[in-house]
Amino acid sequence: MNAITKQCLIVTSTLLLIMSQNATAGGDRVRLQCSALGVNDTSMDARYEERRSNTKFDASFEAAPAAGFVAGEELDVKVGGVLVGSITLISLPGGDVGGDLGFDTRVDDNDPFPGNFPKIIKGTSVMVGNLGCALN
């Protein structure tokens, strides 16, 4: 086998390996996320991930002690304007409060998706309490 043939085989093998990894790892995957910062050191973030066999969504909220939120308070979570659930705030180390809401088609630590959960596309809005962002 001459040097040119060997180089062509190496390049072809490398390209096939890269293509097969992309097909399994990212070919049918959708990942969208966003975050927002509010007044008095409040923040929220949201993530949506869709794979061939699994879909996940989670939203979280955190507030510093001076923000005026308290443990036990509930914040509505809206996706695309649809109320999909709520976050019950808990006390966090350092005096902060926070919480999260998660949905998963494979129910483990998260809840199943509610029947009214809207179709997600790039730009879908997510609101946690009065903070919001658009999934990108």
Task: Summarize the structure in words.
With 136 residues, this protein is an alpha+beta fold. The protein has one domain. Helices cover 17% and strands 43% of the residues. The chain has 1 helix and 9 strands, in the order αβββββββββ. The strands form 2 sheets. The chain has a 5-stranded antiparallel beta sheet with strand order 1-2-3-7-6, with no helix packed on it. Strands 5-4-8-9 form a 4-stranded antiparallel beta sheet, with no helix packed on it. The N terminus is likely disordered.
What is the chain-wise order of helices and strands? Answer: HEEEEEEEEE
Instruction: Give the strand tally.
Output: 9
Distance between the termini: 49 Å
Output the radius of gyration.
21 Å
- Strand percentage lies at 35-45%
Number of domains: 1
Q: Uncertain runs with pLDDT below 50, 5 residues or more?
A: 1-25
What spatial order of strands do you see in the largest sheet? Answer: 1-2-3-7-6
Please sum up the structure shown.
17% of the residues lie in helices and 43% in strands. By secondary structure, the protein is α+β, with helices and mostly antiparallel strands.
Name a few traits of the molecule:
4-stranded antiparallel beta sheet, 9 strands, alpha+beta, 136 residues, disordered N terminus
Write the layout of secondary structure elements.
Blueprint: H1 3-25, E1 30-38, E2 42-50, E3 55-63, E4 74-79, E5 82-88, E6 90-91, E7 97-104, E8 125-128, E9 131-134
Antiparallel strand pairs: 1-2, 2-3, 3-7, 4-5, 4-8, 6-7, 8-9
